Amino acid sequence: GEDVEQSLFLSVREGDSSVINCTYTDSSSTYLYWYKQEPGAGLQLLTYIFSNMDMKQDQRLTVLLNKKDKHLSLRIADTQTGDSAIYFCAETVGSASKIIFGSGTRLSIRP
Amino acid sequence: NAGVTQTPKFQVLKTGQSMTLQCAQDMNHNSMYWYRQDPGMGLRLIYYSASEGTTDKGEVPNGYNVSRLNKREFSLRLESAAPSQTSVYFCASRGDFPGLDEQFFGPGTRLTVL
Prior knowledge:
The structure holds two protein chains of two kinds. Chain A is mainly β. Chain A has no helices and eleven strands. Chain A has strands at 4-6, 9-13, 18-24, 31-37, 43-50, 55-58, 61-66, 71-76, 85-93, 98-101, 105-110. In chain A, strands 2, 4, 5, 9, 10 and 11 form a six-stranded mixed beta sheet that branches. In chain A, a hairpin with a 2-residue loop joins β6 (55-58) and β7 (61-66). Chain A is globular and about 40 Å long. The N and C termini of chain A lie far apart (40 Å). The model of chain A has no long low-confidence stretch (mean pLDDT 89). In chain B, the strands form two sheets. In chain B, strands 2, 4, 5, 6, 9, 10 and 11 form a seven-stranded mixed beta sheet that branches. In chain B, strands 1-3-8-7 form a four-stranded antiparallel beta sheet, with no helix packed on it. In chain B, β9 and β10 form a beta hairpin. The model of chain B has no long low-confidence stretch (mean pLDDT 91). Chains A and B meet through β5, β9 and β10 of A and β4, β5 and β9 of B.
């Protein structure tokens, strides 16, 4: 079936890099997304990668896609306290209208 | 341009009561979605609508009904609320442009069923 899996928690020291991992099941996914949710708010699109790419860089964010292993990662360089949030991985499934989300990874920052 | 709006923001129901969550978008998007968010479970898709007049079940449709009233509005109805439906509900919409199909989310409705 369709499934997106992520670890639930990650703690990093301020200034270090954070790496959030995700595995997905639908090999026909067109897009894979990373969303950020701050406390009490809805989700906002952080970045995305098209399925025919293996890497995308956007300022402090680097997305890596390994299609063979169906593994997606998000690296945040120089992690700041403002990066504290829940990060969701998502994939398009079947018809592009359907999007499935992972359980979210709560990123906490240590001083 | 308000994006995606949801009403109400908060609601408390007793078991067995019914209610409708409203969602509207002003971005002329074809696709709309209802999710529920529970701690440690992320977002689970309840129903979605790929276009006006069509609706499809998601991962957890039981206990819910939806109506795509027109292109702008997509409502979620609980006919007989149960404590297991205590959750935060998010509506989202998405355009159908070539390229990135970003989902835009509403602010959420926090529902408690006693």
